[in-house]
Amino acid sequence: MLIAVHLLQNHAPSNLNRDDNNEPKDAVFGGVRRARISSQAIKRSIRWSPHFRIPFEEAQLGHLLAIRTQLLPEEVSKRLENTNLTNEEKQAIIEAAARLGKGESSNPNGDEENSDKKRGRGKGKGTAADGEKKFKTAQLMFLTEKDIDHLTKRLEEIVRDKGIECLQRLQGDNLVNEIGKYEPHSVDIAMFGRMTTSSPFKDVDAAVQVAHAISTHGIETEFDFYTAVDDISGETGAGFIGDTTFNSATYYKYLSINWEALVKNLNEDRNIAAMAVHALIKAAMFAIPSGKQNSFAAHNLPDLVLVEVRTDNIALSYANAFVKPVRATAKMSLLEASAKALQDYIPQINGIYNLKAERAFLSTVPFTLEGATSCADLKALQTWLSDQGVRA
User: CA-CA distance, 351 to 348, in Å (whole number)?
Assistant: First the structure.
């Protein structure tokens, strides 16, 4: 079974997801420049949304939520504080944890140390904001508390059974093989996947795929010139001047959930999988990337939410409904024009390929689909989803 979520969401002037020039991300689609919000930004906003996290915490299942960090050695260090290991043994364990995970490949000349320095990594160490030296892994790792507990326990066992010198000699795959692979059952790792090289944590294929959100229409980036006045100097004129870029767009957002893959990643726990799907879909509606929100407060919820359930596991994005960019008219807003384009495209593409799906939707704008259930509110949509077999 494949569950797909399609959203139309109009954001007021904003800069929700910036590029390296601090400008809103964009992309060319259908030969036209579009506003874009990266899938990474969308997934992070979902993962940290209270609508995603609180249901698990209230059910005392917070251990099923993961964190992404390079500070694995520091987390291991905390777990060693109340052990009877010597300081030398603890230090060896912390340094072994820092050797896990590979960074970017070394440069063509094989000068790995220098290339690490250019990337600001050094030999497994970093500097915190307070100036304290901290051990870090070369790559960000997506981990649960149980992952870190398991790793700490195994490293402690190696030191006790084979000694400090043995642990210090272990590098790369030899270290990983000595620790052994560990398979997690975290909800967010099960959904969004995990890839760690040279680490004892098993890779996980994502059960959820999230598209970059793109505007249904062409956009032009706008500029805001602003000044700040010094409140106590008594001087005339601006104490500071600057500019920021922004746009406003109606976005098409799409994500799909492979139900069987999610259940498998969660060790066949269908109740947790169903709970995760409901939390994910609700968070996808409410979560908004936080970029420049203090300046723009573009807190706009989707005006159209369409959920599809297919038994044949065929994923289908409707982004091509907007290959020809929609336009607002005197009688139709961008949102309404986008909904109309989606309404026309869905039966067309599904009809050509004889694809079947159960559908339900919420909408503040005119929208109809033959055979689809129109839901009065979010609760009704959640009830409909449960009736399709996704029961928490």
Answer: 5
Q: In this structure, what token pair is assigned to residue 365?
A: 């704008």
Please list the alpha-helical segments (H only) found in 322-377: 334-352
- Amino acid in the structure at residue 150: H
The answer, yes or no, to whether residue 195 has pLDDT greater than 90, is no
pLDDT digits (tens, 9 = 90+) for 330-346: 999 999 999 999 999 99
Which residue stretches of the chain are H helix?
39-47, 50-58, 72-79, 87-98, 112-118, 145-162, 164-169, 172-179, 187-192, 259-265, 270-286, 293-296, 334-352, 378-387
Helix axes 145-162, 87-98, angle to 10 degrees: 130
Nearest by Cα to 264 from 358, 189, 209? 189
* CA of residue 46 relative to chain centroid, distance: 6
| Other beta carbons less than 10 A from residue 190's beta carbon | 28
For the chain, give me the number of helices (H) and strands (E)?
A: 14, 14
